[in-house]
Amino acid sequence: MEEKIITFGEIMLRLSTPDYSTINQTQSFLVNYGGGEANVAVALSHMGHKTYFMSKLPPNQLGDGALSHLKMHGVNTDYVVRGSTTIGIYFLETGFGGRPSKVIYNRKHSAITRIQEDEFDWDEIFKDATWFHLSGITLALGERVRKVAFRAVKEAKKHNVPVSFDFNYRSKLWTVEEAKPVYKKIMEYVNIVFASFYDANTILEIPLDPEFEGKTLSEKRRNVFPKMIKKYNLHYIFGTDRVVYTATDNSLAGYYFWLKDNELSWELTEPIRFNIFDRIGGGDAFASGVIHGLLLNYHDPAYAVRYGLNTSVLKHTIYGDASTMGCEDIETFMAANGTAEVVR
Length: 344
What we know:
The protein is α/β, with parallel strands linked by helices. The chain is built from eleven helices and 14 strands. It has helices spanning 36-46, 61-72, 122-126, 136-139, 143-158, 176-186, 197-203, 217-232, 282-296, 301-315, 327-336; strands spanning 5-8, 12-16, 30-34, 51-57, 80-82, 89-93, 102-106, 131-135, 163-166, 192-194, 236-246, 249-260, 263-268, 272-275.
């Protein structure tokens, strides 16, 4: 069966300030395209997978530019429909030293907010599909987008396609109270999630036992995540811990949680410290690396989390929203920093 990885979301025009300048002082912007699920499709394409992106774009030069970006990276755009007049835009002010990066969205009336279920041939999309991925950012884009997203996960379930979901909660797009019922509903259809303790405890309202109040974040995860896995019948939970030293000096560790034979299996990797050239898309790169690792061996989350972690670290060293690293480069990097082998 031919591999077919599908992602659904919005691809936006990215305008970023050059030379670490602020938005209000810059005289020009660097142009690129990106968006969570599009970034995952691009990254997995560079890892050798056949990826397909679902979305809606305007039938103008900006929409054409986004399609050209995807095609340039080997992503199939047969499931991108055209309509409306506006592409989503976000402005990026790149931080430096103690000054953090800033993002301003201009996407309220973008083409994807006009998307409709009947614009897609669902049986064609999910026929022979091997994976489906989406994120909470897409769910935040309005009721029409949510209807399509829920139709997609239902079709994935009908066709026995694994679904991965990145919580990616963004307070600039909606409130926690608005997000809660939507996240709880989508969890009924997903198998693998990328989530934090905050996502589980605050958004899904999975309770923390009183004796774990005041404990470390890792201990709190070990209390809450098994409940989340059982409640929603999840296969895995993945995520990262980030330490910010400066805007351009961070470290990342990765974790997974898995109920194996009803026994909790989990790991928090050793952190990797690195310098940052472009932070945007680091989480998407982590997700893509984990998905790649699971596609290689679904029952080896320890390898998958390491693949995701190293992919994310490498993504921080290149310009643009998406990782464009091939497997050879990622695996060479893993071997160089001692994370290629899993010690059990």
